[in-house]
Amino acid sequence: MRAVMVWLAGVSFIWPLPAYSNDSVIDLSVASAEAACGGRPISIVQMQWPSSVILAHIHGIILETHLGCDVQYVSGDMAAMASSMATTGEPAIAPELWISRIASIWNSVLGTGRIRTSAPSFSGGGFEGWFLPAHMVELVPELREALAIEDNLELMLASENEQQGEAGVSQGARGSERVRFISCPKSWACSVINKNLLAAYGLSDLVEIVEPANRFEMDTLIAQAVSSRLPVIFYYWQPNAVLAQFDFVALEMGEVNSELFKCLAQIDCSDPQPSSFGGEKPFIVSSDWIGEEAPQVLRYLQRATMPIEEMNRILNWQSEGEVEFEELAARFVAEREDVWHAWVEGLR
């Protein structure tokens, strides 16, 4: 059993970490490990959300087992960690930094030359958008673009009602006479964006807009709609466990238009026009000394982009039971070498 010491309010705690498979561990001498890792501990920051913690421990386990690094974990928020990396060089690695969310701070620290992006944190798919259950697209194949929704709403309802009738679902249990659009809670910015986009696509008066009270209700409504085979369109984002629990199709929403999107984010947008959601993405960020003193670690980071569907799958593992994030990371390393092997191939 491995353990890491964590300092909280001046008190040290021993944090046990689960065992993981080391069948393919490379036997490195202390000297070669120090050379590979810069001769000092590699600190990795875990932010406040699940995927960040999981990524931190995935990269930590791999750096320990394949480069022999001494890995330490620290907790913090994006703004504070980016500033610290630029001034002190610590933490050494931030596996999931959403640069656009701290744009002013990022622009100022980037000028120091002490912080750099190594690679995108995730690959594949958009990070937020509109989704349909896959079975609905099978029934109405034209439903792969947001622009096709208006012309196919009646067909969506008819196809779903036919399916439910065959399954013995009573007419009264079949829900609304309109397709439901499950949006965000009213206090979230995406609620405004979704309303404006519905107007842009001519759907405001044609769908039933549902705004859940919170994230839990949002997930519940989506699960219930899909399980009951109700006609539904919904907004969601990645990485997230919900998108791994069911079979969904992301609607094609066209190109991102930054100028148009500014209006979509405003409550009083006077002329909403179709646009995809912004191309915001997180990056693996490292302190400059990693490239100078630990080039093997930098090479690893430049390769270590996680497929978004893999993170969705990992998050879904947690929904199957009460599992610690560190255990999920260890399970990924043990079971999914076909995904991460290319990150370490050729590194010594």
List keywords for this structure.
single chain; 348 residues; alpha/beta; D-Maltodextrin-Binding Protein, domain 2; 15 helices; 14 strands; disordered N terminus
Protein model, in words:
By secondary structure, this protein is α/β, with parallel strands linked by helices. It has 2 domains: 2-124 and 280-344, Periplasmic binding protein-like II (D-Maltodextrin-Binding Protein, domain 2, 3-Layer(aba) Sandwich), CATH 3.40.190; 128-264, Glycine betaine-binding periplasmic protein, domain 2 (D-Maltodextrin-Binding Protein, domain 2). It is built from 15 helices and 14 strands. The protein has helices at residues 30-37, 50-67, 78-88, 103-110, 134-139, 149-166, 189-200, 215-227, 242-245, 258-264, 288-293, 295-303, 308-319, 325-335, 337-344, and strands at residues 2-8, 11-17, 42-46, 71-75, 93-97, 115-120, 122-123, 128-133, 179-182, 207-210, 232-237, 248-250, 283-287, 306-307. It has a 5-stranded mixed β-sheet. A 3-stranded antiparallel β-sheet has the order 5-13-6. A two-stranded antiparallel ribbon has the order 1-2. Helix 2 crosses helix 14 (325-335) and helix 3 (78-88) runs parallel beside helix 4. It is globular. Residues 1-28 and 167-175 have low confidence and may be disordered.
Layout: helices, strands, pairs:
Layout: E1 2-8, E2 11-17, H1 30-37, E3 42-46, H2 50-67, E4 71-75, H3 78-88, E5 93-97, H4 103-110, E6 115-120, E7 122-123, E8 128-133, H5 134-139, H6 149-166, E9 179-182, H7 189-200, E10 207-210, H8 215-227, E11 232-237, H9 242-245, E12 248-250, H10 258-264, E13 283-287, H11 288-293, H12 295-303, E14 306-307, H13 308-319, H14 325-335, H15 337-344
Parallel strand pairs: 3-4, 7-14, 9-10, 9-11
Antiparallel strand pairs: 1-2, 5-13, 6-13, 8-11, 8-12
